[in-house]
Structure formats: C-alpha cells, structure tokens
Amino acid sequence: MNRSGSCNAPAANSAQKFAPQAPICGARRDPVTYPVPDALDEVCKRSTAKLLYCMPTVHNPTTATMSVARREAVAEVARRHNLFIIEDNVWAAVAPDHPPPLATFAPERTYFISGPAKAMAGGLRIAFVHAPEGQAERVRATVRMTSWMAAPLMAEITSRWIQDGTGERLTEAIRETITRRLALAEKYFRGFEFRSDPAVSFFWLELPSPWRAAEFRAEAEARGIRILTGETFTAGRDPAPHAVRISVGGKHTYEEVERALATLTEILKSPPGAATAVM
Ligand SMILES: Cc1ncc(COP(=O)(O)O)c(C=O)c1O
C-alpha cells in the first residue's frame, strides 16, 4: 500500500489506531542492540503503552542494528503486552545485508514501513506499508482521511525506477558517496567513541567528558556547523545522552564536509564553554 512518505506513514497509522493524546514513553536502549527487551517490558507494565515505534535496522540516530535474538525477544514482549509495532525500515533500503525484518517475528502486529527516501530520492514522497493481516483496510481508510491518496505520479515514477534498474543505480551511487564521506569521518574521529553504518550518511558521536551535547552544538553553530544532539531523538522527558548526530550527507561538497569535520574535532580538543559562557 502506498503512502506519501515514511514519516507520514507512522503518524497516520498511529492516529488511526490510538488516541492523539496517548503518552510517548522511551524504553532504555543500549547502543548496540536497541531497544532492551526488559526495559520495554518495564515500560509496558507501568504505562498504558499500545504501540512500539522502532527502527530495528540502522536506527536513526545511533546507527545500531538489532540482532536476530533481540528481534525475537522484542517480538515476544510485544506479543505478551499486546503491543502493535511500527517498524520503520527506510534506512535499511540502503543496507546491503541485514537481518530479517522484525515483522517476520511478529507478523500479526507489525506495520512494516519502507520507501525510496534514502535509497533513491527524498523528493519522491512515497512509502510502502505492509500491514498485519486484516488491517490493511484500516490503513487505507486513514490514507483517505489524511491525504486522500499518495500522489499517483510519484508512485508511477518510483515503480518504474524499481523495475527498470534506475533505483538500483541510484542506491549504488548513494552508497558510494556515503562510503567516501564516512571514510572522512573515520579519518577525523578515529580515537573518539563514534558509531556509523555503511548505509547511512550520518554518524553518532558519544562526546568525551567534560563536553555536554548542548555546549558542543553551540560551539559548532558559532562556527556555522549545524548538528543534532541526542535530545532531539529522546522520547518525552527522559534524560538525553551526551552524544550528537553528525551528518555528512546533503548537497555540500566533499571539501566542505572535510572542513566541517576538521573544525568539529578542533572544537572537541579545546575546553568547552566559549560559546555558552554565562555570568
Ligand atoms: C527514521 C526515518 N524514517 C523515515 C524517514 C523518511 O521519511 P519520508 O519517506 O517521509 O521522507 C526518515 C528521514 O530522515 C527517517 O530518518
């Protein structure tokens, strides 16, 4: 089923199933195998959670991919608490190898969403949803309610690009660009605690002490570099990690990306405070 973009798809799916005022809770994560099944179990016990939104393959922003064992455990917790799952697979479309979707471990409760935004072009504004058996009509009804239909022209372009090989060529070109730019990140951030994945044009940097994420962002912005802190991705009022997401994508030149990365490492090597000092 087509939707007008993967971001729109989870919103419409959950609006159709759950009250708009439903609370958003975060479950404790670990950076490698997010989310932690025990923590998810805890959240379900102490809340009225009905829905788990997750990115098991190449999580944005940490780039973590859940192992098969972790997928099985998360599916089991979801089943026990009757949670629906929205599996956002949009980045995985660029990853050449990855474990089977979470949807294969809990097909009766998972809305699997993917699309060409990362693997072909963000401007296509199309997403694909695979709904649990018997649920597709409800999703269709929400599409009618929220946007009437996905733009047919975009659906046509996307399906032609998939069929005639253009999509695969675009994905290859994207992979090549990411590989070159992540090599730059590796050059500048070797020795720091950072995580990346060959499928995504950003990396996740745990800031060395005593840096705090907001201070680092302010210093970067004072030099014209925009980055995102862990806070942007934190659910509700949970504490945010002292970490940042640094993108090497976008339409900047290779040289511009290199200059920005060099500047960020210079900032990290100096003491925090210049841009945020208050008396
Ligand atoms: C986790 C995640 N899902 C989906 C999308 C893309 O959504 P859309 O298809 O609406 O462009 C993004 C884009 O950054 C994303 O990070």
Detailed description of the structure:
The chain is 38% helix and 13% strand. It has a 5-stranded mixed beta sheet with strand order 1-5-4-3-2, covered by helices on one side. Strands 6-7-9-8 form a 4-stranded antiparallel beta sheet, with helices on one face. It has 279 residues and is of the alpha+beta class. The protein has 2 domains: 2-164, Type I PLP-dependent aspartate aminotransferase-like (Major domain) (Aspartate Aminotransferase, domain 2, 3-Layer(aba) Sandwich), CATH 3.40.640.10; 174-269, Aspartate Aminotransferase, domain 1 (Alpha-Beta Complex). The longest helix is centred in the middle third of the chain and has 24 residues, at 166-189. The model is unreliable at 12-22 (pLDDT under 50). α2 runs parallel beside α3. The termini are far apart. Pyridoxal-5'-phosphate (PLP) binds at residues 5-8, 55, 60, 88, 90, 115, 117, 122, 127. Pyridoxal-5'-phosphate binds next to loops.
Short structural description:
The chain has 279 residues and is α+β, with helices and mostly antiparallel strands.
Q: What is the chain-wise order of helices and strands? A: EHHEHEEEHHHEEHEEH
Determine the CATH superfamily of the largest domain: Type I PLP-dependent aspartate aminotransferase-like (Major domain)
Poorly predicted spans: 12-22
Largest sheet, strands/sense/barrel: 5 strands, mixed
Please indicate the count of domains.
2
- For the largest beta sheet, what order do the strands appear in spatially? 1-5-4-3-2
Mean pLDDT: 88
Molecules bound to protein? pyridoxal-5'-phosphate
